[in-house]
Write a structure and sequence with these properties.
Blueprint: H1 29-61, H2 70-93, H3 95-114, H4 119-147, H5 151-182, H6 187-190, H7 192-206, H8 221-244, H9 249-271, H10 285-315, H11 320-326, H12 328-348, H13 350-368, H14 377-380, H15 382-404, H16 412-447, H17 455-487
Length: about 500
Amino acid sequence: MDITDSVPHDTDAPPPPVPAPAEPAVRSPWVALAVVCVAQFMITLDATVVNVAAPAIQHSLHFAPGNLQWIINAYTLLSGGFLLLGGRTGDLVGRRLVFSSGVLLFTAASLLNGIAPNAGVLIVGRGLQGLGAAFASPAALALLMTAFPGTRERTKALAVWSTIAVSGGAVGVLLGGLLTDLLSWRWTFFINLPIGAATLLATAKFVPATRGEGRTRGFDTAGAVSVTGGCVLLVYWIVQAPSWGWGSAKTLAVGAAALLILAAFGVIERRSSAPLVRFELFRSRPLSVGNGALFLFGGAAFALFFFASLYLQEVLAYSPLRAGVAFLPVFIASVLGAGVAQQLVRRIGARSVAVLGLGVCAIGMLMLARIPVHGTYASDLLAELILISLGMGMATVPLILLSTTGVREDLSGLASGVNNMSQNIGRALGLAVLSSIATSHATHILHSPGNGTGPEAALHAQVSGYHWGFVGSAILILASVAVVAALLRRQDLAALEDAPPPVPAAA
């Protein structure tokens, strides 16, 4: 039976056990949505707010140049490695409990980072932040899915959620520059403390508890260990491959080990009587296609902030604060794009809106591939950023809708974990590959005969590398267009109509 089917009722079967009393639901699910979106916004902007503060952190804590990347990699390693486990744990033990635990860990780790006396403590704290995010993010999306079972209301809720996902990075750049310039890099972490504390208090009051199925079934320890170990090793391979060399023996060995562990996980789950991951989930074509498109799209979107930030600060010589302000239109345009998508999904369908939004993004990326060395923000970057941000907002809403619609309530946490993992792994792998391409091309240009030497030649080579990065981003986006357009059929989209939600399986 397909995972999106309703569970049949056997009239001869004994009545299901009476569930444990849950806390009263809030008067409006929109209040719960506001609470989980605040937490998600805190987690999303953290990815870029730290990027802006990285030079100040390096100088303050005396990071070795080769170790500075670990303030990003430690977070990515644990957040990407534990997302699947975090999502499924919410299904098993209760989503509000897992969400609150993740927010608490993320907030406590932010405090540790803010008072970190040395590089080692900061790296450990960043890893703990990633671990907290791995449990809080999928639980937050699962809470949204269960609070809005109807497609019409869920589309509205996902428009809000998608705006947070797209705009958090832009706001992080702005906030990172503001806090670093006016106060200290430590405030890029301290800012999370009041947000996290307020979220925990609001969660206890406004977010209803949901009963997890883990109270009546065993826990798949072997599956949990193997999937987490495999995912952590996979992310480690992604973040280290550029420095090791993509064709080196170490890169090939670690990549092969990650795949073997994940293959072993598949065997374990097939044989387990109570598997951690239900592979029937992937029988839903919209879910599989949506996550595949988000995987490709995530790498391109994250690369935009990376290359555009470098261009502003290293080529146009913008300060961190000024670069942050330059990304403000990204936030505004992404909000508008998400609002437009919410209306268009009901009129022309999720597939058409996704293709339209992704196509707009690809055009903007190709336009950025022509940025000059001696350009200006107003004439060479602003229009392209607005165009891409509109497309991002338009594409993210239908893609998340595709990847979460029709999922049985008791598997919503797992579906959310897969959704978050697709985007996070896509971002890490996409950025690793695209930054390697850009760096390799810049190095090739710089060392080619007849290209000259000196700062001006280095700058031309650097911008030429960015061109390749933006072209690569456009190719990834066009690949996601092909995935959505070619693999989704008309009958696959029937689940997106506003119909009664599937009956949840008994816990």
